[in-house]
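Project standup — Tuesday

K.O.: blocked on the structure for the chain from last sprint. Re-posting the sequence here as requested.
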Amino acid sequence: MDFHNTIGRSQVQARCRELNNYLRQHLDTLPHLRCLTPTLPELSSPGIVTYALDKGKNGDIVTQLHDEHNIWVKPAAGTFTIEGGLPHEDYNALRFSTHIYNDEAQLDRTVEVLGKLLKAL
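H.V.: unblocked you, prediction finished:
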């Protein structure tokens, strides 16, 4: 907490958003991915972005990223609604989380490895 308090919450949030935007720009170039996260900052988290897979299984991709490359990505299965009556859709998706301790080189490596996995599908 001292680290966050020293830097300041707004600086941490700004850096997370910067990294998130960087990651999104690069993930958008990969095949078989469709971004589910809104682009408007007021509708999205500064450090989380989710992409649906049009091909392959998210669990398989997550396992390969982790076990073979030590890259942590979370599988995202579906939408969650608070109010009844709203549509629920199951997605075969990947959730990426960035934070202040990440850097662009790590994100580049993630995109590179994921790109190779997707091309092999």
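K.O.: great, moving the ticket to review. The chain has one domain: 2-119. The first strand starts at residue 33 and ends at 35.
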